[in-house]
Design goal:
Length: 140
């Protein structure tokens, strides 16, 4: 999986920043996998007419106006959405070369989901585990 590098991840917070500056190098290895996961999380499922199964339902869930009092409901829905995305990515990877296991997903798991009253709302952190068992944490 190779793509132009369009994200950067804050190594302290795990927060993703989209950066479309010209002249970026190719994202390879684990960085390519993390980017693919991050972009899949950020794209609404069904928004690509040519590939309607790509993307996630995360923003459909977080945009419904759930309050912090409904955190358990949101955590359950987000966990299910992330597991559904994991299955879609694993299905997409079937048949790909295993020469570099660090570029292939093993699992996606929720690290934490909190409601941030002083910020944009839901603070979501996700473990991205590669086939080599390396882990990155990304935050939305």
């Amino acid at each position: 999986m190779k793509d132009i590098n369009v994200i950067s991840i804050n190594t302290v917070t795990g927060k993703i920043t989209i950066d479309f500056k010209a002249g970026k190098e190719m994202a390879t290895g684990r960085a390519a996998l993390v980017q693919m996961v991050a972009l899949s999380l950020l794209n609404d499922r069904g928004s690509d007419a040519f590939n309607p199964n790509v993307g996630s339902t995360i923003y459909q869930i977080t945009g419904k106006g759930y309050s912090k009092n409904e955190a358990d409901v949101v955590k359950t829905l987000l966990t299910l959405a992330i597991k559904e995305l994991e299955e879609n990515i694993l299905q997409e990877q079937r048949g790909l070369s295993r020469d570099d296991p660090d570029t292939l997903l093993k699992s996606l798991d929720v690290y934490s989901i909190k409601y941030d009253e002083g910020g944009p709302g839901w603070d979501i952190k996700i473990f991205v585990k590669t086939l080599d068992n390396n882990i990155e944490i990304i935050g939305l």
